[in-house]
Amino acid sequence: MIPIEELIQYFCGVAKQLRYKSNLLWYALDYPFDWDNQSYAQVVSSSKYRNQLQNIINNVSSADNHHSIYLVSGMIETTIVPPTDFDKIEGFGIMPYSQSIDEIEENKIKNWLDIYRGTGKKVYIAEWGVQTKEASGSDAKYNYGWATNESMKVKMIGEFIDYIYTWDIYWDYFGLHNFHLENSDWGIVYDNNSLKSSGEFIMKKLTGNEQLSITDFCYIVKSDSTNFFQPKIPCFLRKENKNLT
Questions:
Q1: What span, in angstroms and rounded, lies between the C-alpha atoms of 149 and 136?
Q2: How many CB atoms are located within 10 Å of the residue 90 CB?
Q3: Which end of the chain has less neighbouring CB within 10 Å, N or C?
Q4: What CA dihedral angle connects 206, 211, 214 and 219, to 10 degrees?
Q5: C-alpha span between 18 and 20 (Å, rounded)
Q6: What pLDDT digit, counting tens, does each position of 209-245 carry?
Q7: Considering the chain, what is the average pLDDT of its residues?
């Protein structure tokens, strides 16, 4: 375990470097969690955990008072609802990956959002994505976000976009390329940047434009430009003053 003083020193060093960066949306701080420790939920519910996390937040906020801070849960909700009564944060991010193959689990998305909406603070979807049994198989590191194959992956992505289409919310698809370190094919483009069928689908779904090139599409996904998007269409990362609640 890294001593908390070293963590704070590191975080503050990063924050001081970024405090005047206009292309930084906000800080997303993961709730600390030890997934290898089955009893760690008891730690999360303790006052010591809450106080130490508040200390980290306070120091990052002091190092950079130009950017907001969000706490990202990283699927802790599968074990315990983490504390939410923190000062100096703008809101929360969730990662409602499905744990049922070929289903997006709409109720999970809504229920997890409602946990944090109940605080009165803003909420966004920090990560959501799909990998396939066909390509990843049993060697994949994480056992969630499963589709049977690329065709079902396209279907699940479509269902997800349709489900949140009218919501005024930021969301982030994970990820643009496959995650080879975990033997997981989350990506919507191949290593040579040609579009998978899931990438072609998302491009058409979000832009309504079948003529965009992969260069245009990657620019849309990775930049903060909104020029290619119709109003109200959720997208990956776009810099805009939106009400996230």
A1: 10
A2: 16
A3: N
A4: -60
A5: 6
A6: 655 555 555 544 443 333 333 322 333 333 233 333 3
A7: 85
